[in-house]
Amino acid sequence: MGFNIGFIYLKPCPFCGNDQLSLARDPYREAASTFMFVVCPSCGTRGPVAYRNDKSDDALKVAALRRWEERADG
Asked: Which of 1, 14, 21 lies closest to 72 in space, CA to CA?
């Protein structure tokens, strides 16, 4: 089972199996608005970070979701 955000189907968390995932920004970084990642609220696992690089906010969200999907499953 996974999580569907619009047209992107997300794999569940590889550690706890939770499929209720969220998009997040790191509030402790100075430039928090320049990157985003998928996080599992159940166990705290974070996916690979997507960087803005002149992307719109929507494009940044899509990039973060795609990076989660492209991660290597062990």
From this structure: 14
